Amino acid sequence: MEIPEGYSVVKEGEAQILMQTSNTVFFNKAQVNNRDMSIAVLRTFIEKRKEEHEEMLNKRKKKHEKKPVGEDTTVSDAISKEERQAESAESQQDKVKCEGEKEVDVDVAVNDGKKSSSWKRTGDIQPPVVLEALAASGLRALRYAREVEGIAKVIALDIEQASVEACRKNIEFNGPMVCSKVEANQADARVYMLTHPKEFDVVDIDPYGSPSTFLDSAVQSVSDGGILMCTATDMAVLCGTSAEVCYSKYGSYPVKGKYCHEMALRILLASIESHANRYKRYIVPVLSVHMDFYIRVFVRIFTSAGEIKNAPLKLSYVYQCVGCDSFHLQTLGRVVTKNNSVKHYPGFGPTVPQECADCGKRFNMGGPIWSAPMHDQDWVLSILENVKSMRERYPAYEKILAVLTTISEELHDVPLFVSLHNLCATLKCTSPSAVMFRSAVLNAGYRISGSHVNPLGLKSDAPMEVIWDIMRCWVKNHPIKAQPPDHPGSVILSKEPKIQANFSRAVASLSKAQVKKVKRFLPNPEKNWGPKVRAGRQITSKHVSIYGPNVLNGDENGGDPVETNNEEPSAKRQKADNNGVVTQS
User: Fold this and answer.
1) Which of 77, 135, 153, 358 is 20 to 30 Å from 23 at the Cα level?
2) Which residue has the higher pLDDT, 86 or 265?
3) Mean pLDDT, to the nearest integer, of 188-192?
């Protein structure tokens, strides 16, 4: 196909798109990491659906084999009869009239907390239907259609006419196979998802900024057992710079700490869970990732009125000491089991006194956050295996391999982490090596791992008093200068350790990836690798820090020179030299 004038071709994976030299339609090549990770998860999701479906059929078959079968009835006939009965039951589900739409079946089946997917109650498994709610150029939808086998259809939405037209051009540009699979529509994603409840097996939300306004409709549009992929790029809000804004958008209050990016992930998960619970649905996270300048979560959504009663058990408040690095979690709820009855009660609290037991300072309180595991280890290993087996099909192979490898070695049942450098900064002491500190924790009988969020982060199930005892033992062997008596470090060191730390090297002090010298934290592949200007805004010389000096020469996407701001400098940016000539500062 001939390339129109004023356009350039951008190739990523197996897809190609036509990009205008102006900033009419949003595109950021740094999101290749995001798109590659999504493709890897989507491939694994399709495989898992098939495995779950086969497992369900095998259980059904074994169930009928145990029952006596009549002389003229075979096992296969019995299975077919049950399938017909299931289909008949489904046909009698409640129906709801949507305004201006035809009747839509609403799944009202509740399975008492069991993860039952709508497609699992029928005899056949259908190829998944994918909704990309905010398509822009359509590159993500094109890559899904071209690179992921077994997809029935990809629906690409955008509210901007320019984006929809660009998406349709790109669909046509990628050939007849893509034309048969990808459909571009202009619509408000929120309204579209609300009017298509439980119709999509995969819903992908990747907005410019916060996804908060899309979550309520998104959790309703995903089918039972389907997967929701959600990105958030408003990291300043989620990490506590604008904590009050975070509460208004996500319903959680962040606290500042080295773990702020992991807390951002857990705030987003808690928000999605809250929206899902309103419709008797709940989430099961399979992968939660912080990469580059954003976070992205992959969660499966199920329906169960019984299971949502356990939601408070998965949420916690965070108490963060303002003087040292001690933090504590308090769950919102608890359960009491007596004989066969299970009752739900509010959680006991508070878990901390008014003043920190380690340094005597006050606590900041944040949350609620998702405190249950934010990854599924089986899924993580499957995704990692898929990525390794298809290396040539992932443009960002090295990056996503590094992230997935680090995630696979995390302690998934330990929320948040401590920073070794921060611990030492509080005490004003030299830092032990990570291997020595990890060995001391392991020798004390606790577990410890790294974190994919921060190369200096250490996740451990050891209580904070044990962490500080280890540091007290370290300072005894490596004395420091005296600090003011009211300094948090002085208060911590004034107490005698209750345990004697053993810093001799433990066998498990290095992870398997570290032993094999697998790269886990990679630098950016090029300069200016980060967020870009919102579509529709003029790119000027003030955006050099985002796009690089090429923005002045028009080399971005290989186009004409970008207009620069030629206005007169303001008075605040003018100064006079020794000869009285005004120049720009």
Assistant:
1) 153
2) 265
3) 96
Do β-strands 315-321 and 363-370 pair in parallel, antiparallel, or remain unpaired?
antiparallel
For the chain, the C-alpha Rg in angstroms (whole number) is 27
Please list, in sequence order, all residues whose beta carbon lies within 8 angstroms of the beta carbon of residue 44, skipping any fewer than 6 positions away.
Answer: 379, 382, 383, 386
The pLDDT score that the predictor gives to residue 543 is 61
Closest-CA residue to 206 (of 143, 262, 263) = 143
| Cα 444 from Cα 468, distance rounded (Å) | 13
Direct distance between the N- and C-terminal alpha carbons of the chain, in angstroms, rounded to an integer = 49
DSSP 293-334: TEEEEEEEEEE-TTGGGGGGGGEEEEEEESSSS-EEEEESEE
Of residues 255, 247, 251, the one with CA closest to residue 276: 251
Beta bridge partners of 418: 458
What's the whole-number mean pLDDT along residues 429-437? 94
Contact indicator for 240, 254 with CB cutoff of 8 Å: yes
Tokens of 151: 């997809």
Would you say 250 and 267 are in contact if contact means Cβ atoms under 8 Å apart?
A: yes
d(CA 125, CA 85): 17
Closest CA to 136 of 212, 23, 36, 224: 23
Beta pairing class for 294-303 and 281-291: antiparallel
Tell which residue, 208, 199, 122, 114, has the closest CA to residue 159.
208
DSSP per-residue string spanning 469-524 = HHHHHHHHHS------TTSHHHHHHTSPPSS----SPPGGGS-HHHHTT---SPPP
**Each residue of 456-495: b (16+ CB within 10 Å) or e?**
bbbbbebebebbbbbbbbbbeeeeeeeeeeebbbbbbbee
Across 17-31, 97-111, 239-253, least confident range: 97-111
